[in-house]
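Re-run with default settings, no changes from the original entry. Doing this only to confirm the output is reproducible before filing.
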Amino acid sequence: MPKTHRSHSLRLFAALAAAACVAAPARADETSCSPYTPLIQGQEDLVYVWTLGVKGVGDGSDKLVTIDVNPASRTYGKVVHKLSIGGRGEIHHIGLSDDRRYLWGGALDSNRIYVFDIGTDPAKPKLVRTIKDFVQKSGGYVGPHSFIALPGRMLVTPLSNSRDHGGETGIVVYNNQGDFVASHPIPKDGGGDGYGYDAGVNPAKNVFLTTSFTGWNNYMMDLGKLVKDGEAMKRFGNTSVMWDLKTFKPIKVFQTPGAPLEVRWSLAKGDNWALTTSALTSKMWMYKQDAKGEWQVKEVATIGDPAKIPLPVDISIARDGKSLWVSTFMDGTVRLFDLADHGKVREVYQKQVGSQVNMVSQSFDGKRVYVTTSLLGNWDKKGKDDEQFLKIYDWDGKELTQKVHIDFYKEKLGRAHHMKFQVRDLRQLKPLDTAADGLPLLAHSR
């Protein structure tokens, strides 16, 4: 990786360390971003879509697709760049670095990690590093999934292991240059099952939260076959874990049945609570400290009709922590929940946007909502229900109004999965606005 990035990260790390005594709220633009990632203050210019290759569609390769999403641009709503990475490896999630100049993406089957330069020319990302030894360096973990920026580091959450390709796994840390730093197993004691999926960081409380899904044997299986396999259906995660951010030691294991997936901390100052949703039980869970300061979890809402298994797969929290978008894959619907009263979390709006829908992302101001469609290569619907698109909606507080629809099959791109926003001029980004209290101590490898 370029020397300029290394020196920038060192300066950034030093500045954060010097400011360790200063407390500040954690913020980002698309509200799933790490609190260590700089803020886009206004209109996003670009959206990157991590796209699964499909045999016979275009070049058939996995790719990073760049789309102009600024209404003031002459190329608004158009694909302005596509970068094929060669082959198909079940690519899944992407994550921004701590300076927003690099984008990390993972592949659940090939176990490769790709690092893109999105700072030099944001509209034309360049692949600058491919990490091919993730399994060996991590100690046998498989399926790099989420990428969460820490100062000078990247936290990676794999889904599986090379021993039996089941769900027992860990967490892995790299530095910004792409060098392995450390790995830590997900706990199996204290009620833990060892499963992993996503992670969310709260520096103000010096914690991060991980959730759980399933292993390679399941996520690479055809969904129709999987749901008929009674033994396979038992192999999904039912726990989540709170960790100490400085020491990377587990603090507490929670029982959250039914594959809890995405983690979202409220960004409102002083809130210090997080949410996740469980895919198989259609429940929403809230993590919050009690009067004694101990972390607790409670069920706060039901999403759709659990008997129909709507499969909630992604969530996007408003910057004020008062509402939450939830996307449900099986019915192609996005739902808005009112979070103002934690004792009465309720659905206030829903809209079917397609035959299937996976990721949902809102702009920091909450005025724009983005949705994509692909869940996993072998889990997406078949035939006419296999829609693959990016749709952008305006949200006025009452109704979603579609502004952009890009058909990824018509454009010969493939299956549209994860998204991240970017601006064309990074000089407009606000400096990191977060405390350094949560700087991790990662001197030792597993």
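The radius of gyration is 20 Å. The CA atoms of residues 101 and 119 lie 4 Å apart.
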